[in-house]
Specification:
Blueprint lengths: L1 H11 L14 H11 L8 E6 L6 H6 L3 E7 L6 H4 L7 E4 L16 E7 L11 H17 L4 E10 L5 E10 L2 E8 L6 E6 L2 E4 L8 H13 L7 E2 H20 L1
Parallel strand pairs: 1-2, 2-3, 4-7
Antiparallel strand pairs: 3-10, 4-8, 5-6, 6-7, 8-9
Helix pairs in contact: 5-7
Length: 253
């Protein structure tokens, strides 16, 4: 898939790492990627396993690989209850906005507006926009505003043909913190903007290293004894639970 290939290229381009194998339910896709990076397709024990399968398969995929650490793509699972099986001190989660160059070094804001628009695609069709896109912004807000954030307003902007949420607007409030978030994956153009205490930032990745490379370096440093900077499973679960709460409010009208 898209993210699996990006992770492979990030690790394959790191001179301090060895890409041991790639695996895919489609043997042809796995072989194509393995040929590109001169690695295997047989699942073997590794130091770090990157899980980039559909969200509903994250638990089974993680359990299928013997590793010392796992980096699981967001969302941690398709539901918070299923994500409980992935809690552990050696599980990290790919919530990339933590490593967005535009946010690096910024002081903690108190008033935030976040807008994340994506165009329709075949990615992440197993989960709705709350678990797919909103979790990125909820992760940021939980870091800035603390664990007690509560949704005060949820507005459904668009649904898919199957009724799944495709675009929502959310208001969050907490002690000395407030956020307004808009997410859509049926927009006409791609846009990622943050307004932090009145300062407007373009969150489209700029500069080097990009967020995926920065995340991989942070994980590599943690494995060498550095501080944890990649999202933990517990932090990702908190964001997923908040996303589910927002979904419930949306369904309640």
């Amino acid at each position: 898939g898209v993210m699996g290939r990006r992770h492979a290229r990030t690790i394959g381009g790191d001179p301090t790492a060895v890409l041991v194998f790639v695996a895919d339910r489609d043997p042809t896709a796995a072989l194509d990627l393995a040929t590109e990076f001169a690695c295997g397709t047989a699942v073997t024990p590794v130091d770090v396993a990157v899980i980039a399968t559909p969200a509903a398969e994250h638990v089974a995929s993680t359990q299928a690989v013997h590793a010392h650490w796992w980096l699981v793509e967001k969302p941690l699972a398709d539901t918070a209850s299923r994500a409980m099986a992935l809690l552990g001190e050696r599980v990290r989660v790919g919530l990339l906005e933590r490593f967005n160059p535009a946010l690096r070094g910024r002081p903690r804001p108190h008033r935030v507006q976040l807008r994340r628009y994506a165009v329709p695609s075949a990615r992440a069709v197993d989960v709705d926009v709350c678990a797919d896109l909103l979790v990125h912004d909820l992760d940021l807000c939980l870091q800035w505003g603390g664990p007690d954030l509560q949704p005060e307003r949820v507005e459904v902007r668009a649904r898919g043909a199957d009724g799944a949420l495709e675009s929502v607007a959310v208001g969050l409030r907490g002690p000395r913190f407030e956020a307004e978030i808009e997410v859509s994956r049926v927009a006409h153009c791609r846009e990622r903007v943050a307004v932090l205490d009145g300062v407007t930032l373009d969150l489209t990745p700029l500069g080097q290293p990009d967020a995926l490379t920065a995340q991989w370096r942070a994980l590599r440093e943690e494995l060498a004894g550095g501080p944890p900077r990649v999202a933990t499973a517990e932090e990702a679960l908190a964001g997923l639970r908040l996303a589910e709460r927002i979904r419930q409010l949306a369904e309640a009208g």
